[in-house]
């Protein structure tokens, strides 16, 4: 192949992203602005993410449930900051069954209000606590600048909601879920993330604290991959969630919420993808190994099927591509585009030599391995590729995280991308100035010594160390 | 327990249904009319249904995908019968992001229109066919008489959509999925169903043929458990889905759709439930075995945990109920309500005698088994219970399916419930008369000799044999 299938990343990263989403058949724009059609390859990735995340969430003791899509407007209005934060993004149903509704229904942008309404009914005693629920569903937030997976009007996600007896336990849960998310990003998505608390200006509407996992894309922009919110007593007061403690005293509970979405797929594309397409971590690759049957000869077909059975027997998600009516080159390019971690090429020549060709997607290296050991060799490669992708992501993030102590210098360098460690005073005013002057935002507070004694923006005494960068 | 926890079925079946849904903590009404909150026990059942059905659907070669929640009104209007059928049930979004929308968006009542729009883009050649997709999502149909699980404004379901080269292949797919559904109902839900084609009056809006699985509830009413539609060329013409055949000739494709929903849970409740609560088929029971630890003595706790490990090792979904601060009686009643197939009662007395008490939920029989064989005995019971529930469902349906040849007699007997085999002329007029006079509908056409030479309703020559009954 001489012609590039995708716009090169270095030439135009957003165009590369659009190309790879289309050419790898991950998703397309839906008919209504900002909506998305997730095609089978993209959805199969989502199912693998979901299954893995679901197992981790259930491991914390949370149970799955379902709550309604439509939320009465009056529910949203019960928590003042919450409704202020979400109002500009709402989709509103005004007609149902051919008639105008007495009260407009909001299509859920998130479910805190309705879930906490039911928490108030279900929680009576300290014995009912903690109550931990998780919902897999779709939510709608009106987007002015939609982008597939990253920012769509409707997206698929999980939202966790928990009630606890004390504020301290809510804080603990918020941090526990942040850690669940961090490990998921690293172990499953092979993405290295910075974790920390959001500044007040970037907090979830109605939360006392928001914690985030921030990843660094290959174009140097940050992406928020998941958030965990300590809602303190805010929703418990708004919805009057009370329980009687061991002494029979009635107390307000404390709540949390936490979520991750199809946006993670966008992050995975932009962290691992290269000019040849996706590079999927084996943990979430719908096909971990594709056997590319080169010709239609009986011997080749038999050997390919034998190898397929061997790989499946090893627990490897295997696909046999026997479309010999399509050219070998086109099929290779397609599987590269789709990010399949390992390809095994098998034809008459390989049968004669007794060696199959193994191709790694991550570094595109090829090796010839004895046919009778090919399945085990491919299976072993999967772990290696998972580790290599994570190592590359961590190295990239570390190499592109630099301290900065001068605002002018930062303003010049920010367009090159990357994350910047800076001292920050903690004032709202400084966040505004930072954004207006540089287009960058505080991604999160981090647990590190500040690189300077005074705030990057205001020169006031440093109160926090923060990671700053431009973000999706 | 002397006081009945539930309204007895014989006294008031709808009240019994409401009671069991509430007391088994399956679901509650949502805040907006007709909406539903599915609680963890209900949702865990749904997850097991989903996983099993998903495996069967993927086994036919269909792939999962996701399509948008919002459908432009203009899409619905492309297929005339479709929009006529669904218009009265639509929820309409008129405002988004704080502004009135130029074109109102419909919250999908089903996704034929949007899916077929994309089919037209994706299908070019006969090599692209068949194209078979399945979506797990939520849909909204405005309901005037909502009832939890059975008829809710929003429900969870799977909707399959397929494109084929020929009409004959679409018919074949329609029947294949009907068979997948029938086997699922029987093997997994342990529900015996009648299968057959719907009459024209009960057809899906826009279909050439609709096939259905009809189950018989314990109150004698029928419930449509799943449907499979041959859409023929209707949607392919409306959305111009064309492919070039092997000779390069451009042809219209043929399509199908098929769906099952959370309604199946309602069916399961009403087919298997009794005056003590749910009776879950082991295949979809979140806990297949509950170990009821009677006292808090160390020896009891150790033995209970040992048994739990043994059962889990046998692949049984096991729950250890060690809430010894709650009375044994209350806990027994709770697990009966929730329909757990097998209970093992274990306390100091059982340890002394070396025999645990096994309780079957289906027939409520108790047996004492040696402690060291209790896990295997419980596991073996699961298969037996699954079979027994199905056999009871089949027996009930068979015993309550009777031929009828006289309309007056039918009108008298229909209120007692059951399914009636009748001869039918096939005219629309006769369906209308039947409904108005008896409140019954034709559930489906069946492949059997008519019980009389002339139509039950009109006296015209019989064209079909049909099953008639009142339905949910």
From TrEMBL, chains A, B:
Family: Belongs to the class-II aminoacyl-tRNA synthetase family. ProS type 3 subfamily.
EC number(s) reported in the record: 6.1.1.15
Molecular function in Gene Ontology: proline-tRNA ligase activity
Signal peptide (UniProt feature, chain positions): none
Entry keyword Protein biosynthesis: yes
Classification via InterPro entries: aa-tRNA-synt_IIb (IPR002314), aa-tRNA-synth_II (IPR006195), aa-tRNA-synth_II/BPL/LPL (IPR045864), Anticodon-bd (IPR004154), Anticodon-bd_dom_sf (IPR036621), Pro-tRNA-ligase_IIa (IPR002316), Pro-tRNA-ligase_IIa_arc-type (IPR004499), Pro-tRNA_ligase_II_C (IPR016061)
SMART domains: ProRS-C_1 (SM00946)
Oligomer status and interactors: Homodimer.
Domain of life per record: Bacteria
Alphabetized HAMAP family for the sequence: Pro_tRNA_synth_type3
UniProt enzyme class: ligase
Gene encoding the protein: proS
The keyword Aminoacyl-tRNA synthetase appears for this protein: yes
Localization per Swiss-Prot or TrEMBL: Cytoplasm
Role noted for this protein: Catalyzes the attachment of proline to tRNA(Pro) in a two-step reaction: proline is first activated by ATP to form Pro-AMP and then transferred to the acceptor end of tRNA(Pro).
Principal subcellular localisation of the protein: cytoplasm
Reactions listed under catalytic activity: tRNA(Pro) + L-proline + ATP = L-prolyl-tRNA(Pro) + AMP + diphosphate
Domain Aminoacyl-transfer RNA synthetases class-II family profile: 33-281
NCBIfam families (UniProt xref): proS_fam_I
Name of the featured protein: Proline--tRNA ligase
Domain remark text: Consists of three domains: the N-terminal catalytic domain, the anticodon-binding domain and the C-terminal extension.
Sorted UniProt keywords: Aminoacyl-tRNA synthetase, ATP-binding, Cytoplasm, Ligase, Nucleotide-binding, Protein biosynthesis
